[in-house]
Amino acid sequence: MTSPLRKDTELTRDYVAQIRAIQHIELRALEKGYLQGTFIDEGHQVAKGAKMFQIMPMIYQAEVQKANAEAQLSEIELKNTKLLADKNVVSPNELALAKAKFSKAKAEVALAATHKSMTEIRAPFDGLVGRFQVRMGSLVDEGDLLTTLSDNSKVWVYFNVSEVEYLKYESQPGDQKTTTVKLQMADGELFDQPGTVETIEADFNNETGNLAFRATFPNPKGLLRHGETGKILMEVPLKNALLIPQKATFDVLDKKFVFVIDEKNVVHSRPITIAAEMPHVFAVASGLEEHDKILVEGLRKVRDGAKIEVDYKEPSDVFAHLEVPAE
Fold it and tell me: From what superkingdom does this record's organism come (predicted)?
């Protein structure tokens, strides 16, 4: 037999997580036309500014030439009107109108050049190319999806926390609040970089009662990708916890019990409430006190009310053989 152990410890909680790239965008066609060229491949890394797609630019080049010609014509008309205005042959209003026409023509040149430039789709940031939605030679319309681009240099990992767990998290002193977390990947392996809890969503989900946390993980090897899943492992401190070995408990109708031994060495079954579960250990919420003596071995060999002879072992000796995390 032994007694419960009072100590500070840690509990590892796990949460289902969704992995998102810090930047993940859809690249869409900005102009209508035939897709003339693709300069990247699916799954490849591209640098910011790299040319990715080319929509046939001939029509837009012709629009630029047309706008330039009209601008030149407007400039000539403006010069002639100015000469006539200097000789008082035409009114100031006609000169102002000629200036406005020239300004409009220059704006049309800029607009045509902008349309032409948008036939080239370039990478807005360093990233990983997704699946192509169109192939070379396809006729694309303005707004059609071409592919996606993901910046996976860092990833955001979202996980949902219950209202009770959120309140416990926020009640921790600032210097003791758990901000470092680990990521268990889908294959059960731990990701080799720690993450940091950086932000908490503003509102609870009324349907689930949960609140989303977001942790940021560096991803220097690019192992994590947008859309993956995993589990967040968060160490939660348990202050002044009352701990007992799991093997000292038994179940009756889904309730936990222990055998408490009184001063006359008589065994009494007592229900307890579990606050938290760790490997080989339970943290007790109610039902036991630190001075109580409980049976650890041979629970199946005794019955309630029996008198036994058993040696007492110090809690520190019993727990030395168990995996109890220390804070």
Answer: Bacteria
